[in-house]
Amino acid sequence: MQTNDEAKLADPAMNPGDEAYFAAAKEGRLLLKRCSACGKTHHYPRAICPFCWSDRVEWVEASGLGTIYTYSVTRRGEQYCIAYVTLQEGPTLMTNIVDCDLDRIRIGDIVRVVFKPTEGGWAIPMFSTGVTGAGQ
Fold first, then answer.
1. What is the pLDDT of residue 43?
2. What is the pLDDT of residue 33?
3. Which architecture characterizes domain 19-128 according to CATH?
4. pLDDT for 60-90, tens place per residue?
5. Taking burial as the number of CB atoms within 10 A of a residue's CB, which of 59, 68, 70, 117 is the most buried?
């Protein structure tokens, strides 16, 4: 079975306004931003809606469930999987697929968010396959 190894992750490079996102991740919660002007949810969270340019955006907690849209497994040196995951809430984000057999990952797999600690005590959201009872 091919799996991804646990590696020490570097702390995230934070932009102004990212603190709430990573503080929630440290608590095991995935946050998104929702625009109250147009109603769309987006990721990566930013202060201005990327759809209508409104500044009327607010933090919302995501379900943490999504579907693999596409992926790539790297097998040279350290083996890992980078994927685009479409969340139940709509946004698609680039992430890592972890804690699973890399040979069994498929487009359309249902995934759940997991949080990987960093060297400095923050956490980074990633996703894992093998979700059952997800309701999708």
1. 94
2. 96
3. Beta Barrel (2.40)
4. 999 999 999 999 999 988 899 999 999 999 9
5. 68
